[in-house]
Design brief:
The chain is an alpha+beta fold. The strands form two sheets. It has a five-stranded antiparallel sheet with strand order 5-9-8-7-6. A four-stranded mixed sheet has the order 3-1-2-4. The longest helix is centred in the middle third of the chain and has 19 residues.
């Protein structure tokens, strides 16, 4: 049976690490056998020898294999990407639910039931697409969110434990001691901590990103947008806490999020919804490459790279945006745009094109 490691071209991964190629950041992680550490492809540390490295699809796969996150390149700051994206709708839905806390209090059996699949089948899909079990993925997400909170905020360790989805401070401390051989407080770097005024985090995404188009789309549907700042009031019945979340474009490849809540346990779910609303997990390189195979879409993509789909805050079916949109008049043509069908429709709609316009374009290109 083909394993997740077999899916990766190990030699190609090593070449990407040698050149610190940012295009591969978040697509895989390198595990160093001699140190027990796993890194991003862009890690500034000295590159280990080839025989000392193996490459895996996800941070969860690295941690499940016994490797711990590098403190220099900080895997929690990598774009949220994975080889599964666009290939498995079930895995996409499962990850959205896990990120929202489905396995913090519920069981794997309950998660599988919500997805309409068997528990064994769900584990197999995760092994195939992520190289790790769902439980391992959930723990890795908790740990990496906790690391981001430790580095970027002034929250106490007890508050970090709550805000990252750990059920107790004891469990939080034990997990970090086991993974890093030190207490979580030892990971804090005072120079990186942000000020007061809620939980402030910088979330990664893969550039380019058309912020103007996204903010226009959010404003047009009635969201609160003032300048470059998007905000939303949080309600206990929906979000698990009362408060406010706001989002601003940050440094290149980053978005600045501020979450003000009366219960820190709501933070993981709020961040999950922010990622969905702003489509932070999209891969513009893959989207542009695949959709450009359609000669009618190619010039649209060249003129507006980085378009994203505005997601719903309350989504009864948290699937990937590429599978969420129903297409009517474009249906026959849009089938060829999978798995990025919804992005293709977005480009067509923003350009004001109809199915007839696309057919006319086909005639011109064939001439």
């Amino acid at each position: 049976m083909e394993t997740p490691a077999d899916i990766l071209d190990q030699e190609a991964c090593y070449r990407a690490v040698l050149t610190r190629d940012a295009r591969f950041d978040g697509r895989f992680f390198g595990c160093v056998k001699t140190t027990g550490i796993y890194c991003r492809p862009v890690c500034p540390a000295r590159t280990p020898r080839r025989e000392n490295m193996t490459f895996v699809l996800s941070a969860a796969a690295a941690e499940e294999a016994g490797f711990r996150a590098c403190l220099r390149c900080r895997p929690e700051t990598a774009p949220d990407m994975g080889a599964w994206r666009g290939t498995s709708n079930t895995v996409s839905r499962a990850l959205a639910l896990i990120e929202a806390g489905a396995l913090d209090e519920g069981s794997l059996e309950q998660l599988a039931e919500r997805l309409g699949v068997g528990e064994r089948h769900l584990r197999r899909l995760f092994r195939q697409h992520l190289g790790a079990a769902p439980i391992s993925v959930a723990q890795t997400r908790r740990v990496l969110l906790a690391k981001a909170l430790i580095h970027q905020t002034d929250l106490t360790m007890a508050q970090v434990a709550l805000a990252s989805g750990f059920g107790s401070v004891r469990r939080f401390n034990e997990t970090f001691q086991a993974l890093y051989d030190r207490p979580p407080s030892a990971l804090r770097r005072r120079g990186e901590r942000m000020g007061d005024g809620g939980v402030r985090l910088s979330l990664p995404y893969r550039p380019p990103y058309d912020w103007d188009a996204m903010l226009v789309a959010l404003s047009a549907r009635g969201d609160t947008v003032e300048g470059l700042r998007w905000s939303r009031s949080l309600k206990d019945a929906i979000d698990g806490a009362e408060g406010l979340v706001s989002v601003l474009p940050g440094a290149a490849g980053r978005v600045d999020v501020c979450v003000e809540v009366d219960d820190l346990r709501a933070v993981p779910g709020v961040l999950s919804r922010v990622r969905r609303v702003f489509d932070l997990a999209a891969d513009p390189e893959a989207i542009g490459r695949d959709l450009s195979a359609d000669p009618a879409l190619a010039p649209l993509i060249r003129s507006r790279p980085g378009l994203r789909l505005a997601g719903l805050w309350i989504d009864p079916d948290p699937t990937a945006p590429s599978d969420r949109l129903e297409v009517a008049t474009l249906a026959p043509r849009a089938e060829a745009w999978r798995p990025w069908r919804a992005y293709g429709v977005l480009y067509v709609n923003l350009a004001g094109l109809t199915a007839a316009d696309l057919e006319e374009s086909d005639v011109k290109n064939a001439a």
